[in-house]
Amino acid sequence: MLACAQGTPFPAGFLFGASTSAHQTEGNNTNSDRWPLEHGGALLPELSGDAADSYHRWPVDMDLLAELGFTDYRFGIEWARIEPAPGRFSRAALAHYRRMVDGSRERGLRPMVTLHHLTVPRWFAERGGWRAPDAVERFARYVAATAPVLGEGVEYVCTVNEPNVVAAFAAGAAVTSPPVGLPLPDPELTAVLIEAHRAAVAELRAISPQLKAGWSVASQVCQAVRGGAAATAAYRRPREDVFLEAARGDDWVGVQAYTRTRVGPDGPLPPPAGAELALNGWEFYPSALGEALRHAAAVVGNVPIVVTENGIATTDDERRIAYTQQALSGLAEALADGLDIRGYLHRSALDTHEWGTSRPTFGLIAVDPRTFLRAPKPSARWLGRIARRRTLPAWPF
Prior knowledge:
Layout: E1 15-19, H1 22-26, H2 34-39, H3 54-68, E2 72-76, H4 79-82, H5 91-106, E3 110-114, H6 122-126, H7 135-145, H8 147-150, E4 156-161, H9 163-168, H10 187-207, E5 212-218, E6 222-224, H11 229-245, E7 253-256, E8 261-264, E9 267-268, H12 288-300, E10 305-309, H13 317-336, E11 341-347, E12 365-367, E13 374-376, H14 378-389
Parallel strand pairs: 1-2, 1-11, 2-3, 3-4, 4-5, 5-7, 6-8, 7-10, 10-11
Antiparallel strand pairs: 8-9, 12-13
């Protein structure tokens, strides 16, 4: 299967870059709902703290990505900074994120902006979060307020990152990366998030007809084993398919794939005995990307797809390259088969705070937690060369 993908050129305009999120990289996101939870001890062992200090060091991050050869950068803007109190919008925060958009374009990086990535303002959480009766209205108001950031120079906007994860962890803030399965999303919250997404899309189209709006779904890559076909369908639908179906009228949909979920008659199964595991316990399974793309295309129909996240948590950068090479081969095969795939954004650009720990290192670029010195890894240079040449290298590399 790999051989047919070698030397595959990416289409004109294909997005090729890396992703980060606001809370995980900016540091000192003190007005978000995560901050008091971290400092209350619920999310130990590690606080986000300064994170990678990207709130101040974003020019360095963008310089590195551009120098490496990437053409696109997905980053988040933080609702808690933009609207620190209900209905009060910070001109300084909006100007900050506008500078990031301009800085990205000046470096030849096309910005993809994420509006909500697992964090909300503290005041929003205290009012009930997504369960509050006016949650959709409040989110739409925030999206409308981002017009100074998004009005020019931005094409792709992600409304909500992984709404299925948001709904699955509705009962608390201990968002983790479980090695086996995803909790059952709250169906009431699922409906609210879909409504909020649609309201956000309407606001984005009012800001500019040039904006392409969508959201990114955490792909489960479900595989039935031991006679678990019925259980697999029942498991996948509330955790993935309802969120993909909600994207059918969008400009694009994001696919985020890392590993697979094996499902038996009684539910998710652990990784196979002896399987190689990433630092967060996920099975090393690079074929997940190709399988996720094909499943998403089957569900969403004619909606273009962007890979908004794909990568592996490891300290062995050779394994990162091996994983990514095989994942890209699956993507190339899907392109060759006619799937409408518009981009690939690796996660993560930087080693970042991973929701309670910094141990799982996903980054193409290492970050010293004391000096904040950035150091591109061999995988960053390897992937940057692919981005620059816009063609997959021969296998084996």
